[in-house]
Each structure stands twice: as C-alpha cells, then as structure tokens.
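Trying the structure run again after the queue cleared.
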Amino acid sequence: MSSAISRQISLFRIQLENRRFNGAALQILDSILAAKDIRSLLEIRSALGDLLRSEIAPVLGEIAKKSAYEKLLTVDFFVKAFALVGDTESCLALKYEALVLRETKCAVDHDLHVSYQEWYAFGKDSLDNGFYTIAVKGFERALLCIQSHGNIDPDLDTFSIEAHMIDEIKKLRDMAATLVASHSVYTESANYMKRKAIHDEGKWTSRSDKRQEVASVTFRNGIKRRNMMKLQQSQRLLQNTTP
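Done. Tokens:
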C-alpha cells in the first residue's frame, strides 16, 4: 500500500475518531477507492472494512441515548460507508437496524414510518446477496406492513395491490426460507462427512496399527523359528562329527 493511500486512510480514520459522520468523510472514503488496480483495491477495501467494523460498535454505544434522528443519521453514514467498501453484510445489517428503529418510533413521529416497499426492497437485496435469513425477516415485515393497511395509495385499487404484493412477497419469502433450510442441510451434511472422515481415519489408523502389530509379531516369530532351525541343524552336524 502506497504512502499516499496510507495518509488518506489516516485522514479518514481521523474523521471517524472525531465523529464527523458527514458527506465530507464519505468523499474522502470515495477518493481512497477511486481509480485503483484490482489487487490494490481489494487490499484497501479490506483495510477500510476492518477500520469501519472496529468503529461501529463503540459509536452505536455512544449514540444509544440520542434522538432517533441522530441515530438514523449516524447509521445512514455507516450504511453508505460499508456500501462503498463492498461490505454488503454489514451494510444490510445496519439497514435492518435502521428500519426496525423507525418502526419503533413511528407511532410518535409518523415521518419515520416504514412502507412495505422499503421492507420489500430490503428483503430483495438480502435475497439477491445470499443473506437468506435476514431476507425472510424483511419479507415478513413487508407482509405485516401491507396487512396494516397503512401503506397503500388510496387512489389505487387497494385489494388488487394487496393480493398481488402478498403473493409476490410470500413467494420470495418461501424461496428464502427454502434456501435457509437447504443451506442448513448442506452445512449439516458437510459437518457429518467431516466427522465421518475423522472417525473412519481413526478406525483405519487403529486397524493399521493392529495389522502392523500382527505383522511385527509374525516377523519376529519367523526369525525365532529360523534361528531355532539353524540351531537344530548345527546340533545335528555337531553330533554327526563327534567320534
């Protein structure tokens, strides 16, 4: 990593340490990632991802008692930052937390209300990126939003929209749930095969040890018999030559 890149990363780290979660900090981050070769970009993204992950936990702890809007602004900054460095998992995890926070506060402030379209988009993004468990949660939330009848445009045919979207969301939810189950079966199968391989290897080693032991005993006994035969032959020759 070049010294110029290291200086830019240090500058971005200072922005995080000073809790400057704003557009200027994101511009610095974007400039670090701009126009780099593939090898350098992977290295830089990894370093920046580690930096962001090391900061997110203490930052969330610090803003725990702040207003919902302050929390959401901070979370939105990290969502965008993680998206820039290519950490999709952290990006989606924070999006989920932000949507849940808005839902818990929307009774007091209707501007924080979460539409079913937002939950649907979140579930779709999670599904497309392979995060099936969180996709199921997103689609379930979208269904709850539609069933609450608070997300439909009154100028449209509410019933037809609900029927269409419920079918679509259920289909995607079931697909995600199936993929979760398939992944669990695959993981369990992989673990079983690994345990079986270790067990079989132990049995084979044990059998090999026994076979080696038997072979060793047979070999030693063969030597003893051979030596005994030579001794007997020597004794007979000695007896024949004795006057």
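Residues 66 and 174 are 37 Å apart (CA to CA). Worth checking whether this holds up in the mutant runs.
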